[in-house]
């Protein structure tokens, strides 16, 4: 991976916990530890690590339960989990672990060479999947990952209730930036727009780039249409701030359309269509930043 990977080790056996952490630290990883499932979950939710090594058997919360909670948390979508088994686990027990969402198994006591090989392999897989599912220019999720997350949000609300909002964003005045300053300058603006959008939403929400100057945002647990409009206005205000391009100040705007699940549709295609149509109505009015629906 490009940056130093962050790993959390959760094990109630102090000798194994610190031996595992020492091996990982010696390999250059950033490592934190926890001695139980409750403490581990707190640290995992706070740090959002790249990888978690979890003991299967712990007195407070077992590793498989912790794993299920990690995988159910939308803020931990990029966290991989390897379960640590105290013995050669039977295939049925391994299957239970994988069904809980675990990405792999390592037998305890942990042997240094195997541990590092498994961790390095898992982090390579994570990096490959990250590259496949993210826009290379802005590092935002791409259309494929966006649709997957929207589908997850729909299923979650169908189970538990609530509302989600889809924001469809299209930049205004972006073409003149490319024409006047060149495509490199346009790329700078797109990257900065992505940063500004992310600054306006929560970690549990998703911002994605789905086209040249088109972005979408999924807002979870939104407070109705008014809540979605408030976030939209924050994005409008942030994007409208000046950009520095080739030593000169320039501005772009953004038109935003909103659709709500389940009010405006119950599937991805309908929600996208409603939000897209609302966005074009805003564009027609030539009022940068007016939020429709």
Key words describing this protein structure:
Rossmann fold; 293 residues; alpha/beta; single chain; Alpha-Beta Plaits; globular; 5-stranded mixed sheet; 21% strand; 2 domains; 12 strands; 10 helices; 5-stranded parallel sheet
Give an overview of the whole structure.
By secondary structure, the chain is α/β, with parallel strands linked by helices. The chain folds into two domains: 6-133, 3-Layer(aba) Sandwich (Rossmann fold); 143-292, Alpha-Beta Plaits (2-Layer Sandwich). The protein is built from ten helices and twelve strands. The strands form three sheets. A five-stranded parallel sheet has the order 2-1-3-4-5, with helices on both faces. A five-stranded mixed sheet has the order 7-8-6-11-12, sandwiched between helices. A two-stranded antiparallel ribbon has the order 9-10. Strand 11 (253-261), helix 10 (268-284) and strand 12 form a beta-alpha-beta unit. Helix 2 packs parallel to helix 3 and helix 7 (174-181) packs antiparallel against helix 8. The longest helix has 22 residues, at 112-133. The two termini are 42 Å apart. The mean pLDDT is 91.
Strand and helix layout:
Layout: E1 6-10, H1 14-26, E2 30-34, H2 37-47, E3 51-55, H3 63-72, E4 80-85, H4 91-99, E5 104-107, H5 112-133, H6 143-160, E6 164-172, H7 174-181, H8 183-199, E7 206-209, E8 214-220, H9 224-239, E9 243-245, E10 248-250, E11 253-261, H10 268-284, E12 291-292
Parallel strand pairs: 1-2, 1-3, 3-4, 4-5, 11-12
Antiparallel strand pairs: 6-8, 6-11, 7-8, 9-10
